[in-house]
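Field reference: "sequence" (input) and "structure" (output). Example, Lipocalin family protein:
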Amino acid sequence: MKKLILLCVAISLLSCGASKTVRVSKKVIKGDWVLNSITYNKAGTYNATLLNDASKACFEGSTWQFVPNNNTGIYTINGANCATGERHFIFTIQEVDAETGLYDFLLKPTNEKHKSETNQGFRLKLSALSDSDMQWQQTVNVAGNSLTINMNFSKQ
């Protein structure tokens, strides 16, 4: 009887954890990244403010640090003519489809001490992740049409 109860407890604990695919993704995302380029799926000039923070030009070249054991991070904008400095955030990777490896990525800005979240969050698709490259995609509505923003990172 004790073995049966112990087995049930072990199974319930294992079923509550994150999937293996998400755990592997968190291990890969850990560390320092550079946001190299931001592209769009349609031709044109867009005046977008990303993450309600800064322009495409300011985000390109920004550095990002992910600490998956507590789901926090910092990105630093350091471009000329930009409001430079560190921005803190929390993040969550949520599995969408284990076969394709695509995820929803939730990023929420926080104050400097990681104590309180802002009331806004940004849902992005983690569309590619390897040991050296990562891509996020965000779909937005522009004049009634869907536009996909691609954010391309490389690991430092």
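The chain has three helices and ten strands.
Helices lie at 2-16, 20-29, 56-59.
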